[in-house]
Amino acid sequence: MPRSPAPIGNLPFVTEIEIGRGKRGRRAYTFDDIAIVPSRRTRDPEEVSTHWQIDAYRFDLPIVAAPMDSVMSPATAVAMGNLGGLGVLDLEGLWTRYEDPAPLLAEIAGLEPAVATRRMQELYAEEIKPELIVERIRQIRDGGVTVAAALTPQRTQEFWKTVVDAGVDLFVIRGTTVSAEHVSGRAEPLNLKRFIYELDVPVIVGGCATYTAALHLMRTGAAGVLVGFGGGATHTTRDTLGIHAPMASAVADVAAARRDYMDESGGRYVHVIADGGMGRSGEMVKAIACGADAVMLGAALARASDAPGRGFHWGPEAHHPSVPRGTRAQVGTVGTLEEILYGPGRVADGTTNLIGALRRSMATTGYSDLKEFQRVEVVVSPYQPS
C-alpha cells in the first residue's frame, strides 16, 4: 500500500510503496513505462539540431558507442567519428591483449552457448599489453577523429599514464557501478577527485543510478556521468546480484543531481549520458526526454553488419573470471553502421535510422535542440505489446 510522501535527499516528495511490514520502496520506471506527449507546436524535422558538445569536443550526434568488443574496434571507432558520433574503445578488451584479435572475435561469434562463457574467460585471461594500448590509440588518432578510450576503475591506476601519454582526448572510467567513495581494506582505492583534478584531459565516469551517487561523482570534477546499472542487453546483473536500476527514473534522478550541482558549483555543467536499456530508437529518444544530454549505445550498434561482434553482443561482465553476470547475446544484423544511425530504415522496429527517429520526435513535439527537448512532457504509460 502507498505510504505518505517522503523526501529523498534534495528531491521532491515521492510516494513509497510498502513491500512488507519491514520494507518499503520507491516506485521506479523503465523507458517502456513512459511515453512522450505531443505539444501544440510542430517543426520541420530538417530544422532541428542534434548537436552535442562535451568540453571542447562537438559532435553532430548525441550518440556514444559503448566500449565493448562486440561494438568497437579501432576501425569502427574511426567510422563512428566520421559519422558524427563518438566511439569509445575498451582498453581492456581483445584489442589490447592480442596483436590480431580478428580470428578470436570470429571464434566468439561461432561458439556454442554452452561453452561461450568458459571460452571467453580463457581468451580474456591474456595480459593487457601497454604497447598495444598505445598502438590502438594511435590508429584511432590517425583516422582524424576524437579519441576516446575506457578503463575500469580497477585498471585506471595501472594504465592511466600510458593512455594519456598516447594522446587520448576523452578518458572514460566505466564500470557496472562506479563510486566516489569506494572502500577497500586490501588495496588503496582510486581517489577519483584527486585523479580527475590532476589529469589534463576531460573524464567521463560511471555508471551510477541514484541522485546521491551522481552528485558525488559530479563533485570529483568529471565532465560527464554515465547513468545505468545492469540494464543492458547483455547484463544478467538482476539475476546474479539482485541489482537493477530502471532507466527512466535513474536518468531523471541524475538530471536532478546535475541541476542541483550547477547551483552548488556556481554554474558548472556536468553532462548526463544514459548508458544501458536503449536497444531501439524510441528508448534513446525517451532517455533524452528524461534529461540525458547523450546516450551510450551497445546492442543498438552491435547490430551493424560492420560491427566486430558479427551479430553477437557481449560486455566485460560476460567473461568475468569468477562472477560472470552477463551473456553473449545474439542480436543479429539490420544494416551498416551508417544505416543504423542515418537510415534509410528497412524495418519499422526502431533498430535503424536512430537519428531520423530522434529528429522526428523532436519535430513532432516542437523542440529545436536537445536541451529544449529535455523539457518535453512525459506520462506514465506502460507499453503493452500486442
Topology:
Elements: E1 16-20, E2 23-26, E3 34-36, E4 52-54, E5 57-59, E6 63-65, H1 74-82, E7 86-90, H2 102-110, H3 113-123, H4 130-142, E8 148-151, H5 153-166, E9 170-174, H6 192-198, E10 203-208, H7 211-218, E11 224-227, H8 237-240, H9 247-265, E12 271-275, H10 281-289, E13 294-297, H11 299-302, E14 312-313, E15 329-330, H12 337-342, H13 354-365, H14 370-373, E16 378-380
Helix pairs in contact: 1-4, 4-5, 7-9, 10-13
Can you describe this structure?
The structure is a single chain. 33% of the residues lie in helices and 16% in strands. It starts with 15 loop residues before the first strand and ends in a 6-residue tail after the last strand. Strands 6-7-8-9-10-11-12-13 form an eight-stranded parallel barrel, surrounded by five helices. The longest helix has 19 residues, at 247-265. With 386 residues, it is of the alpha/beta class.
Tally of helical runs: 14
Strand content: 15-25%
Describe the largest sheet. 8 strands, parallel, barrel
Distance between the termini: 30 Å
Roughly what is the average pLDDT, rounded to an integer? 89
Give the H and E element order: EEEEEEHEHHHEHEHEHEHHEHEHEEHHHE
